[in-house]
Design a protein that fits this description.
Blueprint lengths: L5 H11 L15 H26 L2 E8 L6 E10 L6 E7 L12 E5 L5 H19 L1 H11 L21 E11 L3 E7 L2 E4 L2 E4 L13 E8 L13 E3 L6 E15 L4 E15 L11 E8 L2 E8 L3 H33 L3 H13 L3 H7 L13 H5 L1
Parallel strand pairs: 11-13, 11-14
Antiparallel strand pairs: 1-14, 2-5, 2-9, 3-6, 4-5, 6-13, 7-8, 9-10, 11-12
Length: 390
């Protein structure tokens, strides 16, 4: 039978092309210095791999401005405000640039309450007030943490009142959600109920000329669109207290559409910036107007697109392997230098044994004769093979 040995020849040819030849074990010399550098190399590589993986997972945030062309989108306003006047003496209304009856899209709920908070309620509101104030002031320092870790404004969750005061309610809580046209508008709270007309509305405040007015207010919630992580609503947790009966509070709000696409959520929402103005109304001093709280909002022409941008996986793997190979080569080079220096300064065990042999061979022959005793030499007891055959 003839066997085909072509496969073995091919394997031998491939074996000759091996660029990663193996060093026999008898030629490998392990040293304490090499073991120390191996341990150091392992920890350095592990630390660098962890750093690179963390950097890869920690993507970059990109904020991109573009024209807002979605004009048919609706604008949702979330409102929760407490005013220091009974609900029967105030009226809340919205008028936008289309002069449309916006309360056809929703209605605010009026709830009689007391302006003075209990200790538990005051502590809860103060905590939210101070925290949101800190977020507004330090936003430029912590914005990456807010967007990447999924944090945002802290809304005031006021616990319910356990014991009701033995007096009539002296405050009104207005809360609800309104869905409006995406145009500029004016949400305001003034004295007197509103009366809608074909071309607008009026407030019947002439019936309350002799009634004391107090437009001190707390803003528990005032936002546009759905809540999103990373967005701070400047007016939430704000409180204004006044003793003037004819005080006018004006908030000029610039609403910016924002499309968010991050690890935590993908949502279309809005954020806003605000400017505040307050002044007492005194017609005799030339300060004209209507006392109340006015929120004048306008839509920005540009919208912001927020998304996360990660590095290509192939680039990440190439950089990771180059770091590992570079550290290995550098440590090997340092290890070689240390071994060369150590060999030049401290003689090795092989050199020491070689020098010892040379010293023994250099002794005179008569010295060994004195040391060798014939009686102590073991005689050769082996029998010759020829004698056994005979």
């Amino acid at each position: 039978m003839i066997r085909y040995r072509g496969k073995k020849k091919v394997l031998d040819k491939v074996k000759e092309l091996d660029a990663f030849s193996k060093v026999p074990d008898e030629y490998v010399d392990s040293t304490p210095v090499g073991g120390t550098f191996s341990v150091i190399t392992f920890f350095i590589i592990m630390w660098l791999v962890y750093s690179e993986v963390s950097y890869f997972l920690d993507s970059n945030l990109v904020f991109k401005f573009m024209p807002d062309t979605d004009m048919d989108e609706k604008l949702r306003i979330n409102i929760d405000i407490t005013l220091a006047m009974p609900c029967s003496n105030i009226g809340a209304d919205i008028l936008d640039s289309t002069s449309q009856s916006v309360f056809g899209f929703g209605e605010l709920q009026e709830e009689d309450t007391w302006w003075e908070l209990t200790k538990e309620q005051q502590d809860a509101f103060d905590a939210v007030k101070y925290l949101n104030s800190y977020l507004r002031e330090e936003y430029h320092s912590i914005w990456q943490l807010l967007w990447k870790k999924g944090h945002g404004s802290v809304r005031a969750t006021i616990p319910p009142r356990k014991n009701k005061p033995n007096r009539r309610p002296d405050a009104c809580r207005l809360h609800g959600v309104l869905t409006l046209n995406k145009v500029a508008g004016n949400f305001h709270i003034t004295a007197g109920k509103s009366l809608h007309l074909p071309r607008g509305h009026i407030h019947l405040n002439m019936l309350f000329d002799d009634t004391p007015q107090n437009f001190s207010h707390r803003i528990h919630r005032l936002s546009f669109g759905s809540p999103a992580n990373g967005i701070i609503y400047p007016l939430e947790g704000d409180e204004k207290i006044t003793s003037d009966e004819n005080m006018l509070y004006q908030y000029f709000i610039e609403v910016v559409p924002t499309d968010v696409d991050t690890t935590f959520e993908t949502i279309k929402t809005f954020q806003y910036s605000v400017k505040e103005l307050q002044r007492p109304i005194s017609h005799s001093k030339g300060s004209h107007g209507v006392p109340g709280v006015f929120f004048k909002y306008d839509m920005a022409a540009l919208k912001i697109q927020v998304y996360q941008e990660r590095e290509n996986l192939l680039q990440f793997m190439l950089r990771l392997f180059s770091i590992i190979g570079g550290i290995y080569v550098i440590i090997s080079f340092i290890n070689t230098i240390v071994l060369l220096v150590r060999t030049g300064l401290i003689p090795t065990e092989t050199e020491f044994s070689r020098d010892s042999k040379k010293a023994l061979n250099a002794r005179p022959t008569h010295a060994t004769s004195f040391q060798t005793n014939p009686l102590l030499v073991t005689p050769d007891l082996n029998v010759p093979l020829d004698l056994i055959k005979q």
